[in-house]
Task: inverse folding
């Protein structure tokens, strides 16, 4: 299935049943989650809460199971053991590939997500314009995907994810394919949008500086199997810059730990 089709299927399934139960104190909870593919154990005994409105980055070496973990939280796959609870219903998803439908305009891509959410037709255009404004693309409603730069496509993809109105946003290396300057700008935008919308974010990356630049909490996964190796609370005020001294200092510390994990994993092979 293409990423676009996967995103659509996911959006179709993403509407929580209304509930009168009291809100739990987390946007996502993973308890003793393990995942194997055949004989290969990828994730082992993961315990993680994402608090409502929290921004968590999940960091780890290539192949350690970050995307696997995100897919489990998204409900695209099931854990081999353990429990995952996402009380606000299916989360919104954003990938490295924009997953926009190329035959639709930017605005129509967003309106489709609004339609799948159940928003009446009469309200979709205005809401799509509002979301385009939120990602600073006001006026791009009629643009086709091929007319947009990589950074603009990711802005539209972000607007489309926000159109689902989910309480949890899952992001899998959404800026990895962008040049450093565009990425920097999108970091700023994402930080602003997160503060404005109060959405909870679980953001996967293998870029340590990006993890520290964005997050309130950085969670480091070990490799083979992926376990939570360590966590850091990042207390520096936002907006941060990737070149800030405190961001750089903590990044050095985390990189050291990540290198240790990679060395340890190498010895086990
Ligand atoms: N559906 C699948 N079937 C079999 N193996 C899989 C499947 N999905 C992932 N894997 C394996 O699980 C391991 C973890 O993959 P995953 O994509 O989660 O890692 P990652 O940390 O996101 O890597 P990267 O940073 O390179 O994207 C890899 O060895 C991968 O080959």
Result:
């Amino acid at each position: 299935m293409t990423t676009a089709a996967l995103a659509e299927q996911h959006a179709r399934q993403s509407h929580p049943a209304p509930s009168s139960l009291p809100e739990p104190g987390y946007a996502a909870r993973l308890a003793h989650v393990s995942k194997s593919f055949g004989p290969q154990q990828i994730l082992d005994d993961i315990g993680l809460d994402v608090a409502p409105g929290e921004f968590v980055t999940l960091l780890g070496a290539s192949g350690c199971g970050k995307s696997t973990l995100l897919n489990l939280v998204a409900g695209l796959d099931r854990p081999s053991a353990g429990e995952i609870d996402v009380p606000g219903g299916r989360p919104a998803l954003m990938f490295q590939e924009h997953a926009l439908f190329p035959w639709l305009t930017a605005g129509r891509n967003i309106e489709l997500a609004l339609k799948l959410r159940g928003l009446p037709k009469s309200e979709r255009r205005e809401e799509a314009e509002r979301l385009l404004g939120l990602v600073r693309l006001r006026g791009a409603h009629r643009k086709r995907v091929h007319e947009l730069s990589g950074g603009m496509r990711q802005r539209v993809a972000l607007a489309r994810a926000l159109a689902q109105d989910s309480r949890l946003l899952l992001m899998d290396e959404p800026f990895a394919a962008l040049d450093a300057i565009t990425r920097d700008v999108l970091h700023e935008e994402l930080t602003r949008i997160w503060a404005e919308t109060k959405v909870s974010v679980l953001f996967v990356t293998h870029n340590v500086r990006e993890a520290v630049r964005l997050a309130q909490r950085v969670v480091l996964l070990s490799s083979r199997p992926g376990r939570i190796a360590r966590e850091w609370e990042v207390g520096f005020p936002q907006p941060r810059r990737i070149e800030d001294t405190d961001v750089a200092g903590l990044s050095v510390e985390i990189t050291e730990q990540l290198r240790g994990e990679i060395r340890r994993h190498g010895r086990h092979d």
